[in-house]
Amino acid sequence: MILDILAIGAHPDDVELGCGGTLLSHIDKGYKVGIVDLTKGELGTRGSAEIRLAESLEAARILGVSVRENLGFEDVFFLHDRAHLLEVIKILRHYRPQVVLVNAQYDRHPDHGKCAALLRDGVFLAGLPKISTSFKGELQQAHRPRAVYSYIQALNIIPDFVVDITKYFETKMRAVLAYKSQF
């Protein structure tokens, strides 16, 4: 499945909080949108990996995204290394998005910055044909998204641009509140 926009977050709920309204706006315009969570958020203070997975699927249903996946990286302890980069490259090549939305480079939670760095490099590397990857047994072709944008979550960062989500705010909040264990 080819996606126009792929939103990636370190934890389930990052995407909903940071760019859920933007996704709704673009889905309404006919764009095909997906979400990938790097971790299950298993070390979070509240809830469990199983609860957060169920909550993330409900939030995805509310948003109306085409696909939602979880890469199962270890919460807090995932690394910016070859193994994790290859998994990011595989997912980018599989969905072939034109736009990637990702956590801000600097944020309160250290995983958010790690996610941003991993994606920054993964997007570049996904476009290198000499890096060989396969997904579900099929050899993948190189693909580099045209743009990577960071969404703001916890810190007051001055944005480069703003998407008006007024029309979608209530639905965004329903998706956020699907994470009953967190809010």
Describe the structure in your own words.
This protein is of the alpha/beta class and 183 residues long. Helices cover 38% and strands 18% of the residues. The protein contains five helices and seven strands; from the N terminus they run βαβαβαβαβββα. It has helices spanning 14-28, 49-63, 82-95, 110-126, 169-177; strands spanning 5-9, 33-39, 67-73, 99-103, 134-135, 138-139, 147-151. Strands 3-2-1-4-7 form a five-stranded parallel sheet, sandwiched between helices. A two-stranded antiparallel sheet has the order 5-6. Helix 2 (49-63) links the parallel strand 2 and strand 3 (67-73). The longest helix is centred in the middle third of the chain and has 17 residues, at 110-126. The termini are far apart. The relative contact order is 0.23.
Offer a quick outline of the entry.
The chain has helices at 14-28, 49-63, 82-95, 110-126, 169-177, and strands spanning 5-9, 33-39, 67-73, 99-103, 134-135, 138-139, 147-151.
Descriptive tags:
single chain, alpha/beta, 5-stranded parallel β-sheet, two-stranded antiparallel sheet, 5 helices, about 20% strand, globular
* Number of H/I helices: 5
If strands are numbered along the chain, what order do they take across the biggest sheet?
A: 3-2-1-4-7
Query: What value does the Rg take, in angstroms?
Result: 15 Å
Give the strand content: 15-25%
Give the N-terminus to C-terminus distance in angstroms. Answer: 32 Å
- The average pLDDT value, as a whole number, equals 95
Q: Bin the helical content.
A: 25-40%
Overall SS class: alpha/beta
- Which series of helices and strands comes N to C? EHEHEHEHEEEH
Biggest sheet record: 5 strands, parallel
